[in-house]
Each structure stands twice: as C-alpha cells, then as structure tokens.
C-alpha cells in the first residue's frame, strides 16, 4: 500500500476524523509532523473537516528555534493551513517550576493545544493529531516488554487515546523510513529537530542497537511488532470490559471499604488479578505503581484464614473476613502520608530516645513553618556536623530506595530543608545539641515501634 | 531465592510432579539437562516419585557422541538415577526420510521418550522433564514478537504442555548463567554440546546481539520477559475458555458446514477473531497457518450482503447467508491440493494455449510416475533450455511467495522433479518442443481461467 492509502485506511479504520471535526496538528517542523500535516491536507480532499497547525517555540536553542518557527510557518503557508505559533521560555519555566526541559516542554505544548482548542468556537469534535509512527510504537513495546509489562504495556501506543478520544495518531502504521521517503517523493523538506537526537539512553539503545538486528532477522519486524501490539491492546480492552462485569458481580463498596466476595475466587486466576487491580486502583484513587506483588498478596488472602491481613502501599490494608476480602484505607495515612503528632517541651538534658518513628528536634532552628508532604524538586538535608548539604534525591539513591518508593515517602519539612525522612534519617541541622533549649517531639500516629 | 528454591517453587506452583509419578529426564550431558537431573534428585528428598534418565546417542559426531554417552552414564551412576541409552543413526535416518538432522533428531528423541514411558508398567502419571530455561523462553518470545504473533506466541514456552500435560519444564524461571553457576557450586561438571553452538541464525542473533543489549538497559530483562510471557499465556488460556463459551453459543455444525450465527457480530472484535480462528481450525482439521488476513476476510462477511463469499486456504469457503456466515470445505480441494484432470493426445503442431491453469507437457519425458502433492525437501525444476536445475525452494523465494504459502502450493511431480508449480511456472525440461510426440494436457478442475 502507498503511504497515503495506509494512513487514510488507519484514519477510517479507527474513525479518527468524523465529518465537520477540527483537527489540530502539533507541527515541530520535523519530518514526522510535516508528513502528518501534508497527509491530513490530502485527506481533506475526501472528508470535510478543519485543519490547523500549532507550532510551539520552546526558546531552547535560539537560532535553531527561529529557523524551526519560520520553516513551520512557510510549510503552512504553502499548504494553506491556518498557523498559530506560541512562544514559551521553556528554560525559564523549567527553572521556576523545577522541572526537566523535557517535562516543561510537554507541559507548554499541552497548554498550547488546549488554548487552540478553546479558541475554536464553532461546533464539531476537536482532536489533536500526533505524529507517532510505527518505529515509536515498536520501541515502546520493546521497552515495556523488557520491564515485564502486562497486556496494557505490550499494547504499545494506541491509535486513539485520551479523554474523549481526543488524541489521534494517523501515522501509527507507517515506518520512520517511509515518512522520509514520502516527503522526498513529494518534494517537501523538513528540519532536523535536534531535540529528537538527544533522546534518552534506553530509547537510543533500542532504536540503534536492537531494532536494526531485528530487521536483519525479519525486514518487517517493526510492522510485525506493531501488529502484535494492536492485537494486545484489543485484548486488554476486552479484559477491562470483562473486569467491569466481574466488578459489578463481586465488589461492594460500603463507605471507604471495598468488599470482594469470595465467589470471585472461582474465576480464572488472570481475571482475579485484573479484578484486584481494579479495586486497588479505585481504593488508592488512581495511584500508579500497583505491582504484581500487591495483587498476589491480596489474591493469597482468599486462601488465608479469617483475620489474615496485608498492608499494601498508599495506606491500604486488605483483610480476610469469612472468605471475602475487604480493602480499606487506613484513615490516618491519606495520600500515603503518615499523620504526625507533635509536642514541644523544654530540653532538660533528658536521654534522647532512639526510635524509628519518634524523633526529637531542636525547635529553635526551624526557620519557616513546618509541613508534612511528599518530596519536591530542590529538597535537601544536612548530612554532617559541618553543615554539608545533600540533595534529598541523592540521599534516597544512596539508601537504595527504589524510585517508585521515593515519591511515597512522608517528609517533615521546613521549606526545602527536610527535617525528617520518615522511616529514615533526620537532618543533622535540627539535631538536639547541648545548646538546644526547646524540644520538638514528633511521632508517627498509629505505628508501633519495634524496639 | 536460591536456584533450588526457585525450581521447587516452580514445580509446586504448576503442580508438575504429583506424588507417585514417574519423571523421565532427557539427559544430553549438557549443563541444562545435568542441572535438571541434579535438582530433581534433590527434590526427591521432599516428594515421592520415580526419576529416570534417558540419553539418546544420535551418532552425529562419532567421538563426541561416545564421550557424551559415557559422561551421561557416569552422572547417573553418581546420582543413582536409572539410566537408559538409545542409539539412532540420525544422519542415516535424515537421509532416508529426507529430513534435516535437527528434525530427525527431534523425532528419534520423541520415540525414545515414548519407549521409556511405555516400559514403565507400574501405576502413576508419567512425565518428561525438559530443560528449557528462562533465556530459551525470552528468545522464543522475542522471536515470536518480531513475527507479529498473538497472545499465544507472546506467551512463549509453557511450564507444562503436551497432551495430558506430560511435558514439564522445572527450569523455566532459571537463567542460563544461573544454571552453570549452580553446577559449579555443586562441583558437578558437564559436557559442551556442540549441536547447541550451531543453533540457527535467528536464535543466535537474538541470543548474542539482542539480549545482551536488553540486559544493559535492564539487567533483569530476561526475567521480566519471562514474567510478561507468563502473564500472556494465562490471558491466552482465558481467551480460549471464553472462545469455548462463544463457540457453544454461536456455532452450529451440520454435516461439513459450520454456521456462525450473526449475533456473534455483537461481541468484541477480538473475540470474533478468536471464534473465527477456532472455527477455521476445526473446519481445516487443525491446519496451521491461519492468518489474520483469513480471519479478517471472514469477519468482513458479516458486514457483506447475502451470497457474498470468500475463498480461504485449505479448500475452505465462507459464505454469507442471511447474516450468518457458513464455512465449508470444497470437496475437490481436500488438503488444499487442487484436483488436476489430464488427457494425452498426439502432438500435431497445434497452437499451445497460454493459460494459467491449463498446461501442456512433453509426455515422453516423464521418467517415473506422476503425482500431485505439496512440496518436499529435494524438489527442483529445470529453469532454462540448457537444463539448469534450480531448487524449488529458491524458485519460490525468487517469486517472493511467502513461506506460509509455499507449503500450500499444489505441485505436479515426477519424483523430485517438478513439472508444474500450479499457478506458477512449469519446468523447462517438460516443455513441448518440435521433437514432442505425445502431449500430456493437465487442467485444474473447477478453476475458471481469466483470459
């Protein structure tokens, strides 16, 4: 099939562009988005819809950014597509909001898309067309496979996604090489987006070391992976629908407690897992990082005796109650943050207790107001008596705390200065010394000390 | 977990070795099978079962084969496991049966296992323990992924398989490196099986070029792929069970006709595909190579009008009948082989018709008896007037006929010499010339010529 036919087939198969809708292309000026714009312009010959292009100037590389903006504008002029440009000082925003350039860039692009959508006042569905292609998809699938993902991850990039299905990806079944070939054939040029060449370590290895070997084995490997992925996300959709049915059949919610009826144990193991996953998602209010270990722990409760219980992440506990399993949040640990109780009293050279969940601090050293929260960019501790600072992130890495756990830690903070990483160390700065006058005693509520 | 614990956990999780059963290990003398034998011997300390070892001497490499046999015997003596050896002249068998050494080897091993099983006259289940490990599994999954497999293929190697679940793979969650480490730790040696080092091109590339890069990205990549695979085959099992339910609900068989009720069109697309796949498997009597294209062709019939029909492989046709889809075999094309009709008559310099499905041959050139069959190893054609031979396989590759199609072609043959690849060319050797006396006219029954 020619590239055009392939893309139009994909648009129609997934009903991406209904009649009288509005399609906004995010145009970087790179091959992928230029190709997408050109093909959508062609598609207008056979379907009535409005096409728009949005370029975001990130102000990351001065001259290059100007070149890309000018180029994108020229492309739109030539193709007669309404063009809007947004300017964001991404390096500044990243600095202010303590984000990586990549994250900040993603945020401003999303903002720009939303502004454009809002400005379209006429009726009709509004979609954002993204230029992900078959190679992006194969890379995503492989990345997920080597992390041990389930069907959801092996499904790769979806052709249509987002709330109200507002993200569409018409190039998803076109290879990277085909995109460039198409543009050359059409005599259309593009700019080389240098941000694209700086992609991260993992994706680079997959792109340059794994995919080429796979293509030596099977020249169609990338398309085959795409086909396998399409099959997988269809399976995942079906399993989610089956889970809806099981949820209505076996799960009752009373207050904050989710009760899973013991009869669910007669379902296939895989569907028990999907059901438990769903309940944990609901109970943890959409928290991520629910792992196979959590699910297996809950599943094992069905075989346990009444009263058996496990403590899960996000402040959830699961209990076996006469065969059923009840999952509820421990009130005091809303958001996975421990509740801390404190008191102050004068320091009279008492023995300082060495406990994990009770700590004493020098009250007078506190500069701002105290708060209890998860970690933020810029957090630090003082790690020696000389006042040496260490970034919280580096400390957590030193402690070998897995990335997914780091975001769940409860911190007692004084601005960006961390008094206490609950469960771990306190900052040297606030330690009680012979000069201390007033003690701040902080204790985790409801946690028993093992002494 | 230690290797032992991991293996025992796997045995118990999948209930591989029930009490009082008989377990036969295929012992090559290589690390994997020696490790398997040792660990099963250890497992006997906690479960009552009988353990046997079978070594097959393939007579492929004279001295090496003797060494491997002696080594395997010695291992069994040391571990006190009953040892049986079988001798097969595999090169000879391969030659006689026109098989590759690999295929012939697989066949004789299966035969040896079956003999041993038959000789166990006491009661209790009988199983064959195979030494596939986590790396074998990851390689299989990747191979299948880059061929575009569905959930069945992405499920990789099953821990328990075969009719009556008689193949078990206790090492499936142990890495190759761990096996060697375990044996070294136990002071047990092994022989290096040189057949193992000659594995095929694809597997070698996956093993030596892809997996190592994946392990640079994630040192646990192999185990993660294994975990993803386990999840996938559990999903596949569930989907097959759901297909059973749909089959009972929507499919009726009358004579040779399978009728799929139109109501099945209300099911999720993926389940329609699973159901159609099942019907095609039944209707084609378990033929392989049912592809997404065949399934999609049948699925589209539901949207077609009455009377719409498609011709599938294996002599099957699908028809739309008032919304339902009927699948039946065309009698004349049993096994996917066309029926050929022939006649002979004297050559009187008539015009030779140029048709695709009717061919004239020089009858007197036929050496053996004619037969109509699928392709076999050793088939060839003559491709020029100088009598130049070409392997059939190479000709089919030149014609870009996909591998899965090649096995379905109907061939008119004279021993290994192919007169006609039906639908494609005839051998130059049998072409009618000015010297021809007698014509053999062959015509495909029931196929209309487009002239």
From TrEMBL, chains A, B:
One cellular-component annotation, GO: cytoplasm
Main location: cytoplasm
Binding positions for ATP per the UniProt entry: 28-33
Assigned EC number: 6.3.4.19
Subcellular location: Cytoplasm
Keywords, comma-separated and alphabetical: ATP-binding, Cytoplasm, Ligase, Nucleotide-binding, tRNA processing
Keyword Nucleotide-binding attached: yes
One annotated GO biological process: tRNA modification
A Pfam cross-reference name: TilS_C
Top EC class, one word: ligase
Keyword Nuclease attributed: no
Family affiliation: Belongs to the tRNA(Ile)-lysidine synthase family.
Protein task: Ligates lysine onto the cytidine present at position 34 of the AUA codon-specific tRNA(Ile) that contains the anticodon CAU, in an ATP-dependent manner. Cytidine is converted to lysidine, thus changing the amino acid specificity of the tRNA from methionine to isoleucine.
Protein name: tRNA(Ile)-lysidine synthase
Lineage of producing organism: Bacteria, Bacillati, Bacillota, Clostridia, Lachnospirales
Designated gene of the protein: tilS
